[in-house]
Write a structure and sequence with these properties.
β10 and β11 form a beta hairpin. It is elongated and about 75 Å long. By secondary structure, the protein is of the alpha+beta class. α1 packs across α4. The strands form five sheets. Strands 4-2-6 form a three-stranded antiparallel β-sheet, covered by helices on one side. The chain has a two-stranded antiparallel sheet with strand order 1-5. Strands 3-7 form a two-stranded antiparallel ribbon. It has four helices and eleven strands.
Length: 196
């Protein structure tokens, strides 16, 4: 651990090597202190540059991306040294405007995070609903069947609604193409779905 770099809250780090020609600049926000590999540079912004503004700018700005691209052009595994980063030029608004821009972007990020959480919640609800619908179905009133209120029967797949039957996939579907070729070049099949 003696070779690891210490990073403090509000400071930045990035990996000096990239396999995909992209560099991500991370700011430590959730902890007061951390450790990063020696392969990562650690730095902080000066008082004239709000760190939250810098986080958004350095990761999203086309001005920065273009300058990185000029350095790494033509390479596959690329390096971005810290002294090269220090030479990058970019337009910097006054500090109050930086803070306002950062506040707006943080508000948008929080809204996206909440939306993502809601989407994930509904994705889980949908998964559970699909499981119920695809194993128990719905009755004539649109309600999910339950063994307490509906008749179920035993099957090789477990308990299923009495009205359902167990079938083989080949009874309800047939292949018409195989790896981009017409399946009929290799097999004959009937229109009822049975492969002959």
């Amino acid at each position: 651990l003696s070779n690891y770099n210490i990073i403090k809250k509000g400071e930045f780090t990035y990996r000096s090597m990239s396999d995909d020609q992209t560099f991500v600049f991370n700011m430590l926000e959730d902890f007061d202190i951390g450790l990063v590999s020696p392969a990562y540079y650690v730095f902080k912004t000066k008082p004239s540059c709000a760190n939250v503004f810098f986080k958004y700018f350095v990761n999203a700005s086309n001005e920065i991306k273009l300058q990185i691209y000029k350095i790494i052009q033509g390479s596959t595994r690329t390096a971005l040294k810290f002294n090269q980063l220090l030479e990058f030029a970019f337009s910097l608004p006054p500090l109050p405007e930086q803070r306002k821009i950062a506040e707006i972007l943080e508000t948008v990020d929080r809204a996206i995070e909440k939306t993502d959480q809601i989407i994930e919640k509904y994705r889980r609800i949908k998964q559970g609903l699909m499981q119920d619908l695809l194993t128990r179905g719905i009755d004539e009133n649109g309600k999910i069947r339950s063994e307490k209120t509906h008749k179920f029967k035993n099957s090789p797949l477990g308990r299923i609604p009495e009205e359902w039957e167990v079938v083989r996939l080949g009874e309800v579907a047939f292949v018409t193409k195989l790896a981009g070729f017409e399946y009929t070049k290799f097999f004959n099949y009937s229109l009822e779905g049975e492969i002959i």
